[in-house]
Design brief:
The structure is a homodimer of 515-residue chains. Chain A has 515 residues and is an alpha/beta fold. In chain A, helix 12 links the parallel strand 10 and strand 11. In chain A, helix 2 crosses helix 3. The first copy, chain A, starts with a strand and ends with a helix.
């Protein structure tokens, strides 16, 4: 940090005969700090280190300036600052001394770890590891990282960004910013921007069969916040909650935070089995499901199971959180309506996100809650973080209202369908006997089943070393699964890269599967 | 909703002799739903109402089309959708019937509150009020609304937006959006955008005397999220927490959520008094303070008290949350350094926001945490909502880096200083004996003291009816205060409006004070 030199050992005898040693005053000629600031730092440091005692007199500004060859103004500024902050007292010209009310014993304690402000980094390391709350400890072990390989194959975190209508979004950004009023730049409703709630209500009604008024639509900071708000608001420590096995890890964190008991319920070709749930925990407080396109297995919950689940929730006065994960990407057959549309007694909280449809860093999700929950969620959100930033909500509202979202989804459906076909063909061609995939009507990923006996965690780790993200199916499980597999996202990978990446998997799978 | 008419009571005897009454099929000629969708809705509704029993046969698509005078294609689409969703089974042409696996008793239950999808709003009202969690119940009573009067006088929620450098922000919005990479549009670090953390670290070091590396800076969704994350991570139910009396209500919600015991500690002209805190709750887990400019009283905590507080925190291994509320707006004298800069043992969590410096709807705040807390906060945030939206973080980073923030603050300081003078003069001129205000070196608001015996809640309510936002000082108190007063924000009110608003307060204050 450049040469630093000691200017002077400065001792001065003041009129009232108290003796002060200013000790080492540091000036760093290469520092970006102005001289007055360096002088301020040196004196402050001496006081905090307990070497300049409370009550001891400092030289006059004129005397100090002469001795240190500084302009008097520099010294005055440093003294002013030190007086304003309570380190010095007295009036300039009348004699200045170290503030008498400083608790000396504390200064000495500070001094044991004294450091100067010229050091660039903070040495405030706790003496002991921080003690976290029970809530804190409970969520620490839950996995949450999204690191993508350079190739992007086969992460499930994002769709194809090259096809995003960047220009349209930019146009809307500019017009939305220009049209924001002063009132809109102030605090907004914690439920979100009203026009966005309106257009989302219409979008969800028509495309997903969701039954709601705009008031029931609440904008969140991604789907994860919808989960954490719902669970915080409705689930007590010790309450039981059904989750699909395997399932999306986001709900685990939300449930762990409130110390709920997680009840894993098997998923088969008809989705989560409510009968098993009722057998294991008949009085559970909540069930978390992804009925349209189960994450990660991709199955659709049958109508019969949906009705059973709703019947149970109504009888037990339990809540159903419906995560409508990537269901808009259905490429064959008509879209299936949301379970929420079947609910007639207000027990379903419908959750969605635009992270996969637009982009994750947008951090806009939404929930549709029964009318009686609107006000409690509103209050909860206000206390958690007040609400979401307004600008991108406005942009998104117009993006939907002008039909860009529907157009974008239509384009991406056909792109993702193509990529799924290429992916399946590549797996069948290059990985026979090593990985089994089946077509799925919707979504951005498939489960690749491994041969019996293969450890998907090992396979996943080996693939990661070759730059391929393939999450182990078992990492989404709460209880051991019958088969092991990999969760493979093809949506963000161009066709050629899909084929090359599948080819690259071959030697690794051969090694892992046969060992 | 237009005229709706009943097309037919449609009865048909099928080949296998099971008799089906399709009941009332509704078509609404003015509905935006296509005919196939209306047919789908009618049949689905009959099934869910239990009037079309599982196993009963429907007419062929051809037969249905003829009877209803629809194109066969319309009927095929409706049947297709109903089969995809599991309401019908069988193959078209071979005979179609209501799915046999539908649980009949549940359909009947659904039927008791049956409604058609043609209704625009959801009737999913809970039979009983929703039962909230203990956490939910605990935060519900805490006040959180920010409604601004039309005049904007004298709300404390926002600064003067007309002076915001809108054009600069717009330019940065465009360039930031254009330069975002695909990777940056994916999930980001929950700690925030790295470049923003860097420039904020520098800004806080130079302008606030905060000691930190960029890694210690964590971007949050406003200061409120910083409070709620910290408390959730560090405070257990039953733990004691010192708060200033009176104090910012945001911390109350965060502490109520974890069922902490709030210990109010008096604030005098030197700020919070640690000796009183130690007497009331020596082993408290946390102290919440706003030392630079106490909210709402506006006092600055003395150096001696700061050292006492730090000494206590170190001895008890307790946490200090330092809310550095609007401290950058100091207009006279040098800025006072943050308490965090005195902390040498890592017990201070420093919290700030850009809501008052830029605008509240931006929802960007920050916290500076000791190195050992970075990873736990990172994890906690990931589980709560993954992180903040990226675009405005990028914009803000460049706004700071290019010097616009410092320039904007300088301009606003002089504007707010002027407005404070006008406000004080107006109060002294028009409200003598009714309201007492004293100048303050910093901030966007002042406390106006009421004469002895006046009830500030009543005064506040009366003023609100005349369009003047003047929060009652007692609404920030946990224990009765010695004096009653009003919290009056002058920053967003032009000079003439300040004078007019003060004049408008006169008859109301006279009435309230003398009654």
């Amino acid at each position: 940090m450049g040469t630093s030199f000691f200017l002077a050992i400065y001792n001065v005898m003041t009129k009232v005969a108290s003796f002060v040693s200013l000790g080492f005053i540091h000036f760093d000629s290469e520092s970006e700090d102005p001289l007055y600031r360096q002088l301020y730092n040196s004196i402050r440091h001496e006081i905090l280190a307990g070497r300049l005692k409370p009550g001891s007199r400092l030289p006059s500004t004129r005397g100090m300036a002469q001795e240190l060859s500084l302009s008097r103004n520099t010294v005055v500024r440093a003294y002013d600052q030190l007086m304003a902050e309570g380190y010095l007292e007295g009036q300039i010209g009348m004699g200045t001394c170290v503030a008498r009310d400083l608790p000396e014993e504390m200064l000495t304690v500070m001094g044991t770890k004294a450091h100067t402000e010229l050091e660039s980094s903070h040495d405030g390391t706790l003496e002991a590891k921080p003690i976290l709350s029970q809530r804190g400890e409970a969520v620490m072990p839950i996995p949450y990282r999204w690191e993508m390989s350079k190739s992007g194959a086969f992460s499930t975190t994002i769709g194809e960004m090259n096809e995003f209508p960047t220009k349209v979004w930019e146009k809307l950004l500019i017009s939305s910013w220009k049209n924001l009023s002063s009132e809109e730049l102030s605090y907004q409703s914690s439920c979100g921007y009203d026009f966005l709630r309106e257009v989302l209500a219409t979008f969800l009604q028509t495309s997903r069969g969701v039954h709601c008024t705009p008031e029931q639509v609440i904008i969140t900071n991604g789907a994860q916040q919808a989960l954490s708000l719902s669970v915080d608001l409705l689930v007590n420590p010790g309450d039981q909650a059904w989750v699909e096995n395997p399932c999306f890890n986001g709900i685990r964190a939300a449930l762990a935070a409130v110390k709920a008991e997680i009840i894993p319920v098997s998923v088969d070709s008809e989705g989560l089995n409510p009968e098993e749930g009722i057998e294991k925990a008949p009085h559970a407080r909540l069930a978390f499901i992804s009925p349209s396109h189960q994450y990660p297995l991709g199955v659709t919950m049958s109508l019969s199971r949906r009705l059973q689940l709703l019947h149970w929730a109504r009888q037990e006065n339990a809540w159903i959180i419906e995560d409508d994960y990537d269901s808009v990407y259905r490429h064959s057959g008509p879209p299936l309506a949301a379970l929420q549309g079947l609910d007639q007694s207000g027990h379903v909280i419908y959750v969605g996100t635009l992270s996969k449809v637009l982009f994750p860093a947008l951090r806009i999700g939404y929930m549709v809650v029964p009318p009686d929950l609107v006000e409690p969620i509103h209050t909860m959100r206000a206390h958690v973080d007040r609400g979401s930033s307004i600008l991108e909500q406005v942009v998104l509202a117009h993006f939907i209202d002008e039909g860009h979202l529907a157009r974008h989804i239509r384009r991406m459906i056909s792109l993702y369908q193509d990529r799924q076909s290429v992916f399946i063909e590549a797996v069948q061609t290059y990985l026979p006997g090593l990985l089994t995939v089946e077509p799925n009507d919707t979504g951005l990923h498939l489960v690749g089943w491994l041969p019996e006996g293969a450890d998907d965690q090992v396979v996943s780790q080996e693939l990661a070393q070759s730059g391929i993200d393939a999450a182990a199916l078992s990492s989404f499980a709460h209880e051991p699964l019958v088969r092991s597999g990999l969760v493979l996202g093809y949506a963000a990978v161009p066709k050629l890269a899909i084929i090359q990446s599948v080819q690259r998997m071959k030697p690794i799978l051969e090694r892992c599967v046969n060992s």
